[in-house]
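Hey L., structure's done. Input below.
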Amino acid sequence: MEGVRTQHVHGDVLVAGTGDADRASADANQLVSFFREGEPPHKESGLRVACTAERTAEGWRFDGMEVTLLWTRDH
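Output:
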């Protein structure tokens, strides 16, 4: 869809250790609004995001992500 942009809003973020001091997981709900510049959203989706992260010499970095589409609604 040409010119369509998205805005992602995260909520209910849960970060948990995995038992390894250099690994962690994070889960969150996400609301995504689809819009064209200067116009109100024409579509929304609800997602569940599950991530894994690893501590590196440069700090924590995500190294995996799974996104599950829960619902979508056209306006």
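The radius of gyration is 16 Å. The chain has a mean pLDDT of 95.

-- N.
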